Amino acid sequence: MMGFSCRHRSVSLLIFLIFVVLLLNAPAGRCGCYKRIFSFGDSLIDTGNFARSGPIVEYPFGMTYFHHPTGRISDGRVLIDFYAQAFQLPLIPPNLPQKDTGLFPTGANFAVFGSTAMPPEYFRRWSHDVSWACCLGVQMGWFKEMLQRIAPWDGAKRQILSESLIVLGEIGGNDYNFWFAARRPREQANQFIPDIIATIGSAAKELIGMGAKAIVIPNNFPIGCVPAYLSGYKSNNRADYDEHGCLRWFNDFSQRHNQALRGEVGRLRAQHPDVKLIYADYYGAAMEFIRDPHRFGIGDPLTACCGGDDQPYHISRPCNRMARLWGNPSGFASWDGMHMTEKAYDVISHGVLNGPFADPPLLRSC
Description:
The protein has helices spanning 2-24, 49-53, 79-86, 120-123, 136-150, 154-162, 173-181, 193-210, 227-232, 248-271, 282-291, 342-354, and strands at residues 36-40, 107-109, 164-168, 214-218, 276-280, 306-307, 324-325, 358-359. It is globular and about 60 Å long. The strands form 2 sheets. The protein has a 6-stranded mixed β-sheet. A two-stranded antiparallel ribbon has the order 6-7. By secondary structure, the protein is α/β, with parallel strands linked by helices.
């Protein structure tokens, strides 16, 4: 029995070693650039992790591209899908459904709906409850567990990361969203910015230390143009709005976050000149269809496609099978009042992949 057991373990070890060699030498996408994409973030790039641990998303979610719900909080593809397709990789699977068994030869997505950059205990000092516990640190923990399982040796880990693209966010937006949704004093949200930026920077440094050589770090969207904000902070003072109908204060706030993040990316570049650190300007890319929606076939960019009958933002009902669809999602930028349509994500991803809304443009990072 002992001899059989030893031979059995030897065969198992041999099979495992062969798998690791095959994994490390798997062909890259046909563009010859990145073999894998690993992504972190929130609902803007969640491809099914929340559907694993929370309510199952129903039709009309997924109606445009997949023709059925997939766990994406959109009518179709989200940003990470467009990045994968641009590098001619399969769509990146969510981590949680295969957390303990998946081999993830072309990458994995750790983003989850409702995620924050900071952990829930961070906000308790302000008596602010962020009950959803999935933060960037939790996602990083899942990532390390996955990496240890598929590549237990340090050299194998470093090789996998050196051949991969990391998409670090967008993350941090919900830290502000939850604060503003609770109608807490909005000026106080400025005090979160340095800590959120430091947390994102720390995660990037940790990934670099593990062997990452290419990291996309996206900024925050113009939240003053989001229908949920426009409805929740509706004002009778015309000075509160810009020329596009967006709330000035909230867009200025997003830009303060983005300016701090750009500075952090600059510091990381100075410290790690051998790493490709790509600053993705989601704010600027989104403002393209805010300023000139008809150029992209969009009607009113400040109105939700799926929701209620209230005017003008359509967010009096949650998006579900009972909600009203106001038309073809391809004519809208906002899907449900908080998340975007596939059309909007397509426009943003094009600006990040090809420029000018990434430094450097993502496709040129090869």
